[in-house]
């Protein structure tokens, strides 16, 4: 059985940082911070400046654990209670969903909902409904 560990302060801090980053990106560059769109644009940038801001944003996303190490003196604990095969299949499903939904939770859920985009509201409600269903099935039906 997978145990849920609620971390209110870490979650609040992360949410505030995502909100500030997405707001600054919109104010400074006029861009929406959808992580998959940022990553996709890194491979086909329209200019050197376009590549630079995308690379800087993604670098900031992946260096978070190093910042935690520098501040706290220890690496954050990461536990993944799934097999590598399950992670790969899950990643492919998420990639398909992101393509089908024209964006991810950061683009629709954070930026689109903040702009009251009807399309983003529907997309986010769909993401959440399928998330709830997946958790219910894996925890209570399959028993993973």
Description:
- With 144 residues, this protein is mostly helical.
- It has one domain (8-141).
- 74% of the residues lie in helices and 0% in strands.
- It contains 7 helices and no strands.
- Helix 2 (35-43) packs across helix 3 and helix 6 crosses helix 7.
- The longest helix has 24 residues, at 118-141.
- It is globular.
- 12% of the residues are buried.
Considering the chains and any ligands shown, give keywords for the structure.
globular, mainly alpha, 144 residues
Any chance you could write out the topology, listing elements then pairs?
Elements: H1 8-29, H2 35-43, H3 48-62, H4 64-72, H5 84-100, H6 105-114, H7 118-141
Summarize the structure.
The chain has 144 residues and is mostly helical. The protein has seven helices and no strands. The longest helix is centred in the last third of the chain and has 24 residues, at 118-141.
| Uncertain parts | none
Average of pLDDT: 87
Strand element count: 0
Question: Largest sheet at a glance?
Answer: none
Task: Give the helix tally.
Answer: 7
Please state the oligomeric state of the protein chains shown.
Answer: single chain
């Amino acid at each position: 059985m997978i145990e849920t560990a609620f971390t209110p302060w870490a979650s609040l801090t992360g949410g505030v940082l995502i909100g500030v980053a997405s707001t600054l990106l919109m104010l400074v560059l006029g861009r929406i911070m959808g992580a998959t769109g940022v990553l996709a644009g890194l491979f086909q940038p329209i200019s050197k400046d376009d590549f630079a801001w995308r690379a800087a944003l993604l670098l900031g996303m992946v260096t978070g654990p190093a910042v935690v190490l520098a501040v706290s003196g220890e690496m954050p604990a990461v536990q993944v209670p799934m097999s590598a095969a399950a992670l790969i299949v899950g990643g492919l499903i998420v990639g398909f969903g992101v393509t089908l939904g024209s964006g991810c939770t950061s683009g629709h859920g954070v930026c689109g909902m903040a702009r009251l985009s009807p399309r983003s509201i529907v997309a986010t409600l769909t993401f959440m409904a399928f998330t709830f269903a997946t958790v219910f099935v894996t925890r209570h039906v399959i028993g993973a």
